[in-house]
């Protein structure tokens, strides 16, 4: 039952329908809560500023009538509907931030981000709308436009991603032979691509590969459709599709996807992605057998030796060699026979070696032997 109810909860959007997100004290803003309910059910609307629920009615529209600075903040809305199983609430909408300014100048920008290639209109709004003489537009503190006269509007044409940033404006006018000049605070201008570069995801199954082409599409409504193409080793797999995924036979290769909007003349390619190529099985390297180190306290005291063992005779008694402070590497490639074992056990143990009969190495082949080592 819970899953069925969850499917019936629609999405909700809060938006500005009158005014701007940044206004002067005394100016009005009107918000709307839009619930995408295909069944057209009756919903009660709740409005919030931050975590505080607002008492102003439960209607689709919320009007901030001549707000003051304290009414600045992030505004949300939520839908509530009574059902046989109790109240159902939609998720909270994304916030709409309203900034009530007590100053003299505001740079007003559209609530939505600009798109690459479009023209964006920004307005230097001055309290009281005096007859302006000069208006200057700044981006990140640097002047980018200047115009004289009453026109407070600037147009950023053929937008590029580099055009996004923090913008402000300065306005000047004369009153009674005195020049007044005011400057706005910074306002962020965002610029987005209509179609971002796709990213290809490959999901492997037993005998299939699922190719998923991820992207962001920011065209204005009504947005024309996207056509998706999938490729293996630069050869197209099948025909164009409106779905952003395709199922293909599992096989190694270089895969990529392309998204195209024919009506806008836009197309973008993903970066190629390899599957099943360059994989090598890493064979485990056998480790040398470890020689256990005996506990010295359990070994019997060594007896003094009267004679050394014959070079041809092997002994099972382990030999202990005293460690040295410095280790040097001999440049002589010939193997040297081991040194005679000491006559008594030493208190410090560094290596345990077994005395064996040394093998003679021919001098002509010692270089090969050293290379093989």
Report on this structure:
The protein is mainly β and 373 residues long. The chain is 4% helix and 40% strand. The protein has helices spanning 2-8, 366-372; strands at 12-18, 22-24, 29-35, 44-49, 52-53, 61-64, 73-83, 86-89, 96-101, 105-108, 114-115, 120-126, 134-139, 142-148, 153-156, 165-175, 178-183, 187-189, 191-192, 199-204, 208-214, 227-232, 235-236, 245-249, 253-261, 266-269, 273-275, 319-321, 351-353. A hairpin with a 3-residue loop joins strand 20 (199-204) and strand 21. It starts with a helix and ends with a helix. 15% of the residues are buried. Residues 1-7, 279-286 and 302-373 have low confidence and may be disordered.
Supply database-style keywords.
373 residues, mainly beta, six-stranded mixed sheet, five-stranded antiparallel sheet, 2 helices, flat, disordered N terminus
């Amino acid at each position: 039952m819970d899953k069925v109810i969850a499917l019936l909860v629609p999405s909700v959007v809060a938006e500005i329908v009158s005014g701007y997100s940044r206004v002067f004290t005394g100016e009005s803003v009107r918000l709307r809560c839009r619930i995408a309910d295909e069944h057209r059910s009756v919903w009660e609307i709740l409005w919030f500023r931050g975590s505080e629920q607002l008492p102003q009615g439960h209607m689709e529209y919320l009007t901030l009538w001549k707000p003051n600075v304290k009414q600045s903040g992030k505004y949300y809305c939520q839908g509530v509907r009574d059902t046989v199983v109790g109240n159902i609430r939609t998720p909270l909408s994304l916030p709409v931030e309203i900034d009530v300014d007590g100053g003299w100048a505001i740079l007003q920008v559209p609530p939505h981000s600009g798109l690459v290639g479009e023209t964006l209109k920004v307005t230097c709004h001055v309290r009281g709308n005096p007859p302006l003489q000069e208006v200057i537009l700044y981006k990140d503190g640097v002047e980018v436009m200047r115009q004289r006269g009453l026109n407070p509007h600037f147009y950023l044409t053929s937008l590029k991603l580099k055009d996004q940033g923090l913008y402000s404006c300065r306005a000047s006018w004369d009153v009674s032979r005195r020049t007044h000049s005011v400057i706005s605070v910074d306002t962020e201008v965002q610029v987005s691509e209509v179609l971002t570069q796709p990213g290809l995801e490959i999901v492997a199954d037993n005998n299939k590969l699922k190719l998923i082409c991820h992207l962001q599409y920011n065209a204005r409504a009504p947005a024309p459709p996207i056509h998706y193409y999938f490729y293996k080793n630069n050869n197209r797999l099948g025909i164009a599709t409106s779905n952003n995924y395709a199922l293909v036979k599992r096989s190694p290769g270089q895969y990529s996807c392309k998204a195209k909007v024919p009506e806008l003349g836009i197309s973008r390619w993903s970066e190629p992605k390899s599957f099943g190529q360059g994989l090598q099985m890493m064979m485990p390297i056998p480790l040398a057998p470890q020689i256990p180190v005996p506990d010295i306290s359990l070994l019997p005291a060594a007896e003094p030796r009267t004679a050394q063992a014959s070079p041809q005779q092997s002994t099972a008694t382990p030999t202990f060699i005293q460690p040295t402070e410095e280790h040097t590497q001999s440049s002589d490639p010939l193997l040297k026979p081991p040194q005679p074992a000491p006559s008594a056990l030493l208190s410090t143990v560094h290596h345990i070696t077994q005395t064996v009969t040394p093998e003679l190495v021919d001098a002509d082949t010692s270089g090969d032997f050293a290379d093989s080592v």
